[in-house]
Amino acid sequence: MSAVRAVRRGRPIRVTRIVVYAVLGLFSLLYLMPVYVVVVGSLKTLREVNTTSIWTLPSSFDVGAWRDALQPALQNSGGIASGLVNSLAMTIPAVVISSVWGSINGYILSKWRFRGSDMLFAALLFGMFIPYQAILIPLVNLLQQLHLYDSLVGLAVTHIVYGIPITTLIFRNYYSSIPTDLVEAAKVDGAGIVAVYRRVILPLSVPGFVVVGIWQFTNIWNEFLFAVTLTSAPSSQPVTVALQNLAGSFAALYNVQMAGALISALPTLAVYILLSRYFIRGLLAGSLKG
Amino acid sequence: MRTRVLPALVLLPAVATSVVFVYGFIAWTGYASITGWNQIKPLRNFLPDFPLVGLDNYASLFNTPRFWPNDVLNTAVFTVAFVTVSMVVGLLLAILLEQRIRGETFFRNLFLLPMSLSFVVTGTIWAWIFNPNTGINQLLDPLGLDGLRKAILGIGVLSPLWDALDALHVNILRPGLTADPRAALGAVVIAAVWQMSGFVMAMFLAGLRGIPDEVREAARVDGASEIQVYRHILVPLLRPIVISVVVLLGYISLKIFDLVFVMTRGGPGVSSDFPSILLFDSAFKSNLWARGAAIAVVMLLVSAVIVVPYLRSQLRAEGRR
């Protein structure tokens, strides 16, 4: 029986293999097409970008567009250099604080469960699945009254607050995989809630922090809705808004636009390329299944 | 006693924050949507101190053609197209990557790469690709695809289909692309699929890998072909993941903002407009804050219809485990 099958399956498998690779190759080209367009476009001069097709390679590698995207020589307005600095200054503290806070919540919700804690978890989680438009107007109003509108602090606080559900969720699922015996043993030794966290949980948390940190960094760096509604001055605008403004003030200068897009994407792209394994884990954890 | 109070105390800041910034703010938005706060006036008190107008803002919203039917229809069309195409592409890629191929990690990381970019970056790039004068047309026309496109659009039997796609703003065969109201929404769908289909692939791949080998072996021993194994055994087993993916993609498309804002800004005209763009224009550009709040409430209600049952079933399933 198995011999017959082996003979029958011998050749078709080869053909299927070729088809599999061919289709994957085709999709790879489709997925790489925009990457090619952005890289090639950013290396062209203005003259060249307007006279050649977006598909042709540049005659020489010109970094003028990169310079203009960062800090335009012609116009005073625009340029994403300050946006990059703002994004960095706002993202890093927001990532650190929301990760630590999520770790503490996740620890409680998995290792110190109490009556009603599951309900509180569900209530927290709901905040992850609302369209942020539903809280945007009161948020603007509150930040204005606290003089935190149009400030990096206000934006960072916003990202911390609305980051709690996802960081809590990922850490809770992560800590659920740590054997409760370890925690119980420490409790028997007289360790309290803080001591257990410090002695047992925290040393085991590094992979969790990597996953959550990458996830939060990517999301906060890439965020646009809060960024565009909670800031108005270039001095407090993150890079996503700066890039959008660049596309406005350099409407026909596609080489500058592409350079801006590429530069603003580099930090998250670098994190992704170096740590894709953890990125994917965060991606799957974010869909609740853990 | 101590062991019960202390954990609750540690959790309190997060719960309190959620009560204020999620539940309180939603209530605030709901309240603002029934006031007459449609003008510039700095709010001196914390709540908008304008007279209540009942459901007037909602009534006027649903009497505005840009919102009803245009934006609502666009959202529905976009959601169906984006979710369907992403699912098909994601499932296909997952099945291909599951065939124990060489370079699996490379392919997987490539398809997931757009997930690390912002919608603003994606929108900037795709706006150029779909610019009719500079982009994809310049690649396809020399290859003779313009003629092919015309021929396909000229097939008489299919003209009702093209008319329907034109009316829904998703007929991507129109060479005007983002400059043509008949195609603009379709261009946004394609950019969104490029960005999100890798996520669908990752979910399905994880799901397929989670199915024990014995299941496939049993089916093969029974004489099922590889395609039959997928069609009748494996894909049906992925049902829970299909539900997760549909809910998450649906949630993303109901609130989509950045991508559209950057690619078409809702245009040409209002052909690719969405409630989120209308909200932005109403509240942040025209100071129609109460109208903005009303749009927000509608958006919240629609996504709650999808998300709340999903959350409940997920948490309940977890409780059983």
Write the layout of secondary structure elements.
The complex is a heterodimer of chains A (290) and B (321).
Chain A (H helix, E strand, L loop, with lengths): L1 H41 L3 H6 L12 H7 L10 H31 L5 H10 L6 H13 L6 H25 L3 H9 L4 H9 L4 H17 L2 H6 L8 H11 L4 H21 L1 H10 L5
Helix pairs in contact in A: 1-13, 3-13, 4-7, 4-10, 4-12, 5-7, 7-10, 8-9, 10-13, 10-14, 12-13
Chain B lengths: L1 H31 L23 H7 L3 H32 L6 H9 L6 H11 L6 H5 L4 H10 L4 H9 L16 H26 L3 H9 L4 H12 L1 H16 L3 H6 L11 H11 L3 H32 L1
Helix pairs in contact in B: 1-15, 3-9, 3-12, 4-9, 5-9, 9-12, 10-11, 12-15, 14-15
What's this entry about, in short?
Chain A has 290 residues and is mainly alpha-helical. In chain A, 74% of the residues lie in helices and 0% in strands.
Can you characterise this structure?
The complex is a heterodimer of chains A (290) and B (321). Chain A has helices at 2-42, 46-51, 64-70, 81-111, 117-126, 133-145, 152-176, 180-188, 193-201, 206-222, 225-230, 239-249, 254-274, 276-285. Chain A is mainly alpha-helical. Chain A has two domains: 2-62; 81-285, MetI-like (MetI-like fold, Orthogonal Bundle). Chain A is globular and about 75 Å long. The two termini of chain A are 42 Å apart. Mean pLDDT of chain A is 89; it is low at 1-10. Chain B has 15 helices and no strands. Chain B is mostly helical. The two termini of chain B are 28 Å apart. Chain B has one domain (17-320): MetI-like (MetI-like fold, Orthogonal Bundle). In chain B, helix 10 crosses helix 11 (226-237) and helix 14 crosses helix 15 (289-320). At the A-B interface, helix 1, helix 4, helix 5, helix 6 and helix 7 of A face helix 1, helix 3, helix 4, helix 5 and helix 9 of B.
